Amino acid sequence: MLSETGTQFFGYYPGTVALVTAEHDGICNVMAAGWHTALSAQPPLYGVLVGRERVTHPLISESGVFGVNFLPAARAREVQGTGVLSLHDLPEKDKFARLGLETLPGAPLALADAYLHYHCRVIQTVPTGDHDLFVGEVMEVRHDPAFYDERRLFTGEAAVYLGRSSYVKTTQEREIYPPESFE
Ligand SMILES: Cc1cc2nc3c(=O)[nH]c(=O)nc-3n(C[C@H](O)[C@H](O)[C@H](O)COP(=O)(O)O)c2cc1C
Q1: Model pLDDT for residues 81-114, shown as the tens digit of each residue
Q2: Ligand 1 site-directed mutation target among 12, 54, 75, 130, most atoms within 8 Å of CB
Q3: Total domains present in the chain
Q4: Sign of CA dihedral 139, 144, 148, 150
Q5: How far is Cα 115 from Cα 112, in angstroms, rounded to an integer?
């Protein structure tokens, strides 16, 4: 039974956490975003919600570009770390080095261990209460074939965020509901 708990929402996880990357004026950063979504297939648009106090926020708004990265379950600790540590507080001003995250040569917004990466150009910024929705046109997609089958169905092990710093791993056991099962 549902019980009323006021207006402070919680518990809408489980969900995946994206790592949003951005770079401007020689500063490169990465942060966890549980609030992210595909917005359009044609043109391909992807949105991330970023609080205005995040170091990542001005890096995106000033460069007009951001990366969206998805890391496998084996890197869930690092995913969480990017959301607990802020570049505001890191004396060395390098969250990548602190967490042992590497980027691809020539693609500073693409995390080397990601199974999926979108390179996005900001086409719209929508204020939403205490966050801004950066609407990105997806300019480039990279994926690691080791995590997908020949139909590009995800077959790897992903980390699913439950809230409160907790993650579970997806398993290989699946239930499949093809369209014909509804005829
Ligand atoms: C699992 C998780 C999900 C998060 N999701 C978001 C989000 O969607 N948007 C946001 O602005 N901050 C989110 N945060 C908080 C930021 O990741 C966090 O404030 C981070 O330290 C910002 O880094 P920065 O200041 O270096 O940019 C999340 C944190 C965690 C741990």
Answers
A1: 999 999 999 999 999 999 999 999 999 999 999 9
A2: 54
A3: 1
A4: positive
A5: 9
Residue minimizing CA distance to atom 5 of ligand 1: 33
pTM: 0.97
Q: Which residues line ligand 1 (CB under 6 A)?
A: 17, 29, 31-35, 49-51, 54-56, 80, 83-88, 131, 161
Question: DSSP states of 23-88 as a string?
Answer: EETTEEEEEEES-EEEEETTTTEEEEEEETTSTHHHHHHHH-EEEEEE-BGGGHHHHHHHHH--GG
Q: Is residue 13 part of a domain?
A: no
Q: Decide: helix, strand or coil at residue 164.
A: coil
Q: Does 76 map to a domain?
A: yes
Residue 125: which domain range? Answer: 18-173
